[in-house]
Amino acid sequence: MSDLEIVVAHPERATIRVGEVFLKIDTDQAQADREVEAMRLAPVPTPEILWRQPPVLALAALPGRPLARLGEPATGSPAAWEAAGDVVRRLHEAPLPTWQSRRGAERAAILDRECELLVAQDLLPRDVVSRGRELAQVALEPRPQAFIHGDLQVAHVFVDEPDRVTGVLDWSEGGAGDPAYDLATLSLGHADRLEELMAGYGRAVDRDVIRGWWALRCLTSIRWLVDHDYDPFAPGCEAQVLRSIV
């Protein structure tokens, strides 16, 4: 029997790898239904669904390797980042889903609460939080929506030779939302690859909005990551990213 690997586990859902099969466990069946539908509608490569027996969804492993990982130097070539940008553009040009993405829909009240708690719990200096909050304001402004992935981390985009995107993982947050949120999430911690990503994307995007989403994502995730035994203070991760942009 293949060894079990816990890829991610938290109160909302868990993902376990068994050999070349990923088992996603999500007790929110309405959310799981939306994930399956997002994969069906997305005009980009997604993992093959092997079987589904609620609350478990079995997915085939994607060939290749992650484009990069947060906190580590980017391993993907410039051409691979351009290919990723092209995939994101194709997704954003697809017809809108009938539901909203749960991610990228943060509101001012949530951001304000997290900023207050970051300072109260002495997780970040007040001046860093304050400047980050100012940057994040632009991300709260209404903009035209697109079909977004909603959690487009670099580890969710797989590539192989010759710099081809083989698939995109984890569509649990897919839905309608701000397209800049996907671009910001994909480039978080890898600002040096943003120009290559945007070259592949081929559409005009306000860099200040991307920077605003970087700030907002960091500010609203640091406390959650700490509470769930992740380390947002590791080199290249959320706390360092926030400090680098304020």
Description:
The longest helix has 21 residues. The protein contains 8 helices and 10 strands. The chain has 246 residues and is an alpha+beta fold. The model has no long low-confidence stretch (mean pLDDT 93). The termini are far apart. The radius of gyration is 17 Å and the shape is globular. It has a 5-stranded antiparallel beta sheet with strand order 1-2-3-5-4. A 3-stranded antiparallel beta sheet has the order 6-8-9, covered by helices on one side. A two-stranded antiparallel sheet has the order 7-10. A hairpin with a 2-residue loop joins strand 2 and strand 3. It has a single domain, classed as Alpha-Beta Complex (Aminoglycoside 3'-phosphotransferase, Chain: A, domain 2).
Short descriptors:
Aminoglycoside 3'-phosphotransferase, Chain: A, domain 2; 10 strands; single chain; 246 residues; 3-stranded antiparallel β-sheet; 5-stranded antiparallel β-sheet; 8 helices; alpha+beta
Q: What can be said about the biggest beta sheet?
A: 5 strands, antiparallel
Radius of gyration: 17 Å
Q: Roughly what percent helix? A: 25-40%
Which residues sit in consecutive blocks of at least 5 with pLDDT less than 50? none
Roughly what is the average pLDDT, rounded to an integer?
A: 93
Beta-strand percent range: 15-25%
CATH architecture assignment: Alpha-Beta Complex
Shape descriptor reads globular
Q: Output the number of helix runs.
A: 8
Give the CA-CA distance, first to last residue: 49 Å
For the largest sheet, list the strands in their spatial order.
Answer: 1-2-3-5-4
Order of helices and strands: EEEHEEEHHHEEEEHHHH
